Amino acid sequence: MFHYTAGWPGTNRTGRQLYENGVQVPAECTNNNYFPELMLDKFEQIVHNAERDRPFYVHFATPLPRANMEWDGVTEKGVQHTMPQYSARPAVVAVSDEFPDRKRQLAQIQALDEQVRRITNALQNKGLLDNTIIVFAGDNGGSARIAGGNPWGINHASNWPLRQAKSTLFDGGIRTLAYVWSPIFKRPGGIVTDQLFSNTDWLPTLYEAAGGDPQALGGIDGVSHWQSLVSGSRQGPRQELPYLLNHAGTQRVLLYKEPTSGVLYKLLGTAFPSNTGWERTEGTTAANPMTTPTLVSIRCNHQEGVEQTPCQPWLADCLFDLTNDPCETDNIAASHPEMVQLLTAKLAIHNATNVPSLHRNYDPNSNPARFDGWLTPWMDPEPVRKPASCAPFNPSTAF
Known about the structure:
Number of strands: 10
Radius of gyration: 23 Å
């Protein structure tokens, strides 16, 4: 779980990459445990040792669920992480053995559920839960079997009935779930909101939640949603969201909530031809959808997985009405040219302040073979920091 393979064809390099406070954690220190379990143990230790009257922030970036991305120098192996201790849970057993990869992926999700449970219990046992804000959020849509046409990072996630998956600009790739929980809200059962929210909004939102003034953060891209969360409003402060821009103009997405109608529009364009259809992961057929409709279920308002009006974003930008067509089945660019024009103009304004990305070629000096098999910040004055001693990792059950 700690031996990662990095690189593209011709630059494949394998190395260990597990550090704590910049210091290497050798294999003999981890008792051959799963990385997700080690993260949990470390979090529980942090909470256990925390001072009750001293605020703290923890970013728990779980690797679950995640594709293995194992690369042998020629092909992507497509092997998933296996979580055998969770494979016997009812949700996993319910899936036919005909779909072993889907079962492995579901076992990872069960492990993720366990992480949430133990994180919550650790805070409660310390007496901190009543004064804590918990945010659960993803960074992108799930990687399906097709992985958006990308052979790296294939997984067996289900974004159905959203269109496509990770590595694409459709909502199956960029729309994610999130929730914010805290006793501060005092709303039994909570609320469901569909307001536009960017990952850049977390900083000012949590900064204000902690008592700060978001204006003090200066000219940042994010906006605070804290007041709308506290009040329970379904209307947030963000009206538009540029998702992806680059100076070459090869990829672009803009989400825009029209103020009069409240309709959420999405403009999408790319220079790269790709699969634009839908992927229904194995074990989730119409006869066995494995879903119970809830308030947050996606209702397409059109036939699921069937395109009404073609979208080929490498030929012309596509426009979708996500309010009435959340599954992106109907490209309305031809019938709404004025909206395409408006959003294109907005994209140009955003792009004018875009900072070009810096791409560099592979540096052979970074080869882990130069550092005893470790992936390191090789350009640092001290790229390798070894521990003075190595005590076996102390599991949370020890305290």
